[in-house]
Design a protein that fits this description.
Layout (H helix, E strand, L loop, with lengths): L14 E7 L5 H14 L4 E6 L9 E3 L5 E3 L1 E3 L3 H6 L5 E4 L8 H11 L3 E7 L11 H7 L2 E5 L1 E2 L6 E2 L1 E4 L15 E4 L1 H5 L4
Parallel strand pairs: 1-7, 1-8, 2-5, 2-6, 6-7
Antiparallel strand pairs: 3-4, 9-10, 11-12
This protein binds zinc ion.
Length: about 190
């Protein structure tokens, strides 16, 4: 259903897409789907992810269904520009873990004609906007918000509720410590 959302796809000027949502919403699956399409079209691409995320593997992104792409691990957004050599598409997964300097980097690439696809959590476990994602959403031509299913009631879920007591915003390697909740069910829980 997202296929016709990008009328400029294939044209020469660049733009920014954001794929956002809660945990278990299929963000990485959607990013992989878009990269797979670019690959079929013989469009060159680069895929980045933050170095701190090593849930599955150091140099790949892998969907829950097992589909995967090689990714370059970087510590800060400026490194993206040092790797870029005219690739048509630049994708960044787990973009919420970067600082707001990512905005300047992706804007520069889009201005140079690159299709930039950012995927990440739009809210942290408290339901607050996460890192640079709200800024990227503001600057993007296209935003796709994907949803999980609320484990309590079955409605569409947009919150990533943390089921353990741990106050840091980033809790790595702990997917099982979250569950997706809808607004009603999230509001019933003390934060
Ligand atoms: Zn619910």
């Amino acid at each position: 259903m997202f296929l016709e959302q990008f009328p400029e796809e294939g044209k020469s000027h660049g733009w920014l897409e954001v794929v956002c949502g809660s945990m278990f919403s299929g963000k990485t699956e959607e990013l992989i789907r878009r990269l797979r399409r670019a690959e079929f079209a013989n469009q060159s691409f680069l895929l980045f992810k933050p170095k701190l995320d090593n849930r599955y593997s150091d140099d790949q992104i892998i969907s829950h269904a097992g589909d995967q792409f090689d990714a370059i691990n970087i510590e800060n957004p400026a490194q993206i520009l040092t790797y870029w050599t005219e690739q048509k598409v630049v994708a960044i997964d787990e973009v919420q873990f970067f600082d707001t300097t990512i905005l300047g980097v992706v804007s520069e690439l889009a201005s140079k004609g690159v299709r930039v696809i950012c995927a990440g959590l739009d809210m942290d476990y408290k339901g607050k906007p996460f890192g640079p994602v709200p800024y990227l959403m503001a600057a993007a031509e296209y935003i796709t918000k994907v949803h999980a299913i609320c484990v309590s009631c079955g409605n569409l879920a947009q919150f990533s509720h943390r089921t353990v007591k741990e106050d840091s915003q980033v809790l790595l390697g702990a997917v099982e410590k979250y569950k997706p909740l809808c607004r009603n069910c999230f509001n019933k829980i003390e934060h």
